[in-house]
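FIELD: query
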Amino acid sequence: MFDSPLSASAYEILEVDPTVDDDELRRAYRLRLRQTHPDTGGDAETFVQVQRAWELIGTAEGRAAYDRRSGVHASPTTDAGSDSDSGWSGWRPRAARTDTRPRARSYGHPGGWRRERYLSLIREWAGRGVEVPDPYDPALVRSAPRDLRRILADALAEEATARTVSDLGMGFTVWHDVEAGADADDKLDHVVLGPSGLYGVMSEDFGGVVGFRRGEITGPIVGTRAPVTSALRRMRTVAKKARVRFGGAIIVLPDDDLAQAVTPLGTSRGVPVVVVRRSALAMVLRQGVPQARAIGGNELFDVRTRLQQTVRFV
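FIELD: result
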C-alpha cells in the first residue's frame, strides 16, 4: 500500500500537504477517522487506509523514513534513489546486487519493455520530447495520467515477481517478457518451470481491491480488461509454438488487493487458474497449483529445451 504508482500517498489519504506540521497532521488524521468510520456512514476500506497511513507518518521517525522512501523533500540523487535491502520502495530500477546464493536460471529482462514504454511516454507527456530531469520523481509520477502510471506499476510488479522466482534456487527456470502475439504488448510476463510444474505467470497491479466473477478478475478499477482470459490466450500461443503443456496459470497481485492469499478460479481447457498475493507466490510455486500436473525427470529437461529453443522476447 502507498508504494504503487497507482495508489494514493499517505498524505493524500489524510488529505494534507506533505509540508504540514505535526499538529495539523494529527488534526487531519482525527478528522479523516470521523469521516470514514463505518459506524457513521463511512467506507470501511478507506477507514483502514486512514489508519495505515497514520501508522506510516504518525510519528516523527516514521514520517522521516516515509519521506525518504517516497522522495518527499529529497533530491533525485539522494535518499529517494537509494536501494538498500530494508524498506526500499523507490520506483527507480534497483541497483545490481552482489549475492553468491544459487539463483534460478533466468532469461529476458523482467519489466524491461514496460519501463522503456513508461520512460518514452512520461517524457512525451511531461516534456514533449525534451529530456525530463527525473522521470521517477514522485510528484511527477503521481500527477501523470492513470494509464501511464499503470505501465510503471506493472513494470514494478514484474520485477517483484522476478525477484521471488530468482530466490527459489537452481531447480527453477524462468523466462521474462515472452513474446505471445504480433503486438509488443501482447506478451506473457513470465514462464516458470520447476519441479511442481510449468506455469504462465502474469504480474498485475490494478491499484486497489479486486473481485471475481465466472473465473475472471473484476471490479471498477479493472474496467473492461479480462486479465485471466488474456493470460490464457497468451499461454496457448507459447504452448503451441514450443509444443509444451502448461500446468497452470498464476495471476500475481499486491497483497493489499486480495482478501486471501490464494484464490482458485477453476480451470480453463484443463488448465487450473489461481490468483495469489505477491507474498504467497513462492509457496505456490514450490508446492504447485492445485490440480496442476507436476513435471520431473527427463520431461523437465525436454520442456526446458523446447522453451529455450522457441521463446522470443519482446
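FIELD: remark
The radius of gyration is 21 Å.
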